[in-house]
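Can anyone check this?
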Amino acid sequence: MKPLYRIAFLLLLSLSFTTQSQAQRKYNDYRSVSVGVKGGVTFSRVNFRPSVHENYLMGMTVGASVRYIEEKYFGIIGEVSYSQFGWKEDFSKQTPNTYEFSHTLNYVTAAILSHIFFGNEPVRGFINMGPQIGLYISDDYTSNFDINQLPNFSSSWETQQYYEPLKTKFDYGITAGVGFELKLKRHSIILEGRYYFGLNDFFENSKGKDAYFSASANQQILATLSYMFHIK
């Protein structure tokens, strides 16, 4: 009987090793690291209080990202980008309504995002969400009137935004987006739409300092196209 015990023991040991090997191989199948570049268009405005008549300002964004997938439907993305924020004023209620003014704010941004994906390859959907920070680097405005000699705007028209200096160069907020990924062996093409909600005001808003604007936080809609290369 001893030989039978030995055979049974060897069979169980072999079965256990095979099961663990398959589980480890299956686990490793989920793990991947990818790097990529992205670019796209932005539509920005500012949450002013008191409110300013505004439309979305079109701008651009370019950046790079690293993605690490650990689980079957979950991963993490790190991004660094150059992105344009700001606002464009809406003069449709003015007479005449031929005035134009826009103010562009340029930032370097960084984000850490949870990456939740679903669906079968080669096409799958995903949701990204997480915190984002930004560092102001420059700004510029365009106008077809002299902001130091303003036209005869209506009495309800806000004009303080033309003169208010930027007090905060650090921006932070939350961002979330949805999109689709086309996976081609070691490459991916990704289309994403995202929304950013800023939580920090760039104009002075401190109590007791006679701040004019109580809120002046960035808001942004992004549409981007990305290329990613799968390292492993």
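Reply from J.R.: I decoded it. The two ends are 49 Å apart (CA to CA).
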